[in-house]
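Sample intake sheet
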Amino acid sequence: MGDSLEERIAARALRYVVEPPRALDPVVDLASPAELQAIFDQAGSLAFADESLPVDDDTMVDAVDLVIKHSVHTSHPRFINQNFAGPDPVSVVGDWLGAALNTTGATFEAAPVFTLMESAVLSKLGRFAGYVGPGSEQIPTLPPGLFCPGGSTATLYALQLARHRLRPDIKVSGATGEQFTLFVSAAGHYAATKSAALLGLGTNAVVKVAADERGAMIPDALDAAICASKADGQVPFAVIATSGTTVTSAFDDLNALGDISEAHGLWLHVDGCYGGSALFSPTHRHHLDGVERSDSFVWNLHKMMGMTQQCTALLVREPALLADCFALRADYLFQPDKLHAEYDSGDRTFQCARRIDVLKLWLAWKHHGDAGFAARIDHAVAMAEHAARRIQASDGEFVRVTGTFTNVVFGWVPPALRPLDLSPASIGQLTPEVHDALHTLAPRIKGRMQTEGTAMMGFQPIEGLNTFRLLFMNPEVAPSDVDAMLDRVSQYGDELVAAGQP
């Protein structure tokens, strides 16, 4: 008797996890939407007919092979496209196990092990962030936070907590008519604006505060913005500090923002979705000095730490506020007189059913230990430093534009334009002809990379000019991979210029 369909698919998935694409393997086997539909027509079709009949096992397995072949290989060391990368293998199998057990993290009775596991992990994260002191209870009945489905949702929850602390009656009575305002750096994440819309505050409630050339919020500008808002009769209630902006990986000065927030009585939320993992490294945790002064802190472990999508922790300095803000005490589920009800977490969040996102993190952390997690951060920074040195030594072919920590933002300059200053302050001084020529190069070079499958590298505008961005997340990236990616940029750029494009 042959293997079942489940076993055949699982075997392919496991082989992909333990032997992911490497080196000269393509990062992506690019196909257009029309080509993909035609390819899958050979394996049962991507679409569903009005009446869908069962598909035989061999065809199903063929379809799985096509899925793997034509997906982007985020585990590849030359995938530097986003602020996540291939997952830690232990995390992957942990995610599978959590899915196989198929329970919810809402109550102890449905998830006894996972409830305690989540409390233990949140307590450990809280100790890293300074929310929980050393020697504190390691598996408390009320952990310092909860797991959320992504950083944007965690930001939404944090802002709801902030408003609730200031105006708890809104939970029952509804909007007061006051014009609330919250403050985030001009380089901060758009989750602030989306959250304001969902909370009924309106997008105009979000005040974008000036950032410096690196992308960090200017403290004096924040204080001035808060004072101006108060003078206009508005009600400031929260500040969102950023620890690791998406493009330049800038870190706001948390102590300075903490002083301002305390002086004005505002909730301080730290968006550490990207850079929060610097806390794992004794060498680099200084980027988050002052985080212990914040009221809430969101941390995406699926970014730098390689947990499978998604794994987001929202830490809260006063976790008792979660139930006060969210709980409705549904008596069919959260009965206070059942066994171990004090451990139930489901009423402390807007969600009820929650994925078991903690198991993969618990397994990976136990496997690697604190030192292994620290090494992952230190390696990422080392690769960024290697890229910066290679760019610096290129005699003007590559020009670093900005970026810190594990981000390197740079431009490729055609031979006829070298040397060229591409610092953010100088980009606005470029002639329209030079600006347009450089602006079109980045997407064309990236297009060549995708078409040939040699790498995937992001680009984005800095002061209106498209520039490349290297984000180091994958511990398998080696200096040779960095060099190979820069070589491809150079090769494709030269070929485009030789062909007159632009």
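Comment: The first helix runs from residue 5 to 18. The chain has two domains: 1-28+72-103+370-502, 105-355.
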